[in-house]
Amino acid sequence: MKLKGNVAIVTGGTKGIGHGIACALAAEAASIVVVSRTARDCERVAAEIRDAYGVETLALPTDVTEIAQIEAMVQKTVERFSRIDILINNAGGAITKDAVDLTEADWDHVLNLDLKSVFFCAQAVGRHMIDQGGGKIVNIASVLGLVADKRVLPYCVAKAGVLHMTKALALEWARYNVRVNAICPGYVETDINRAELGDEKIKKALLGKFAIRRYAEVSEMTGAAVYLSSDESSYMTGQAMVIDGGWTCA
What we know:
The protein has one domain (7-249): 3-Layer(aba) Sandwich (Rossmann fold). Helices cover 46% and strands 17% of the residues. It contains eight helices and nine strands. It has a seven-stranded parallel beta sheet, sandwiched between helices. β4 (86-89), α4 and β5 (135-140) form a beta-alpha-beta unit. The mean pLDDT is 96.
């Protein structure tokens, strides 16, 4: 019951890491606002979480690359719950392509989804957190914001930007009791990428990077999200929790 009375928005909350975090926050008694682009998925997951954990939920289909839709999502949350205590900035994606083949459309798509949307979600939610006297923002970055990899250049750039944005917002909003932190997952196996990560050539290329010679599971990301969303991390802001199987320690 660490989060009883808290209202949490989870973007990209219907699949993968976002879904796992939404469930973990609900298990600690937080009310959950499920955000993704597809209404049917939002409604399905909101009902699933409500039935499984007995918490209030709200399904809000939103394209987080559109500022007007972000602002509407935040306003609907405030109208329903009167407050926002937690934002999990999780929505994101990558395009795998050689750098010489990247188009302007590729660049804009990844940067808009992985960096621009993170800021404008934080800004829209942050305004309410400042007015209400505090809150917790958790940005889901990536180990690729710390070290680069081939064929995902815009994603690396965006996630590095998320980490620096996390520090800048933390400095600016600390006096308002708004804490801003990040999580940097390594490669996490989900329903979205299981087939790709299971390819033997890809496994050989990736698993050698990790001291722990396997991919992460979604459940290994959720505890950090609960910690950063709770009062247990009350003296922590502007930090990145790296959960990468030992990739960056070498």
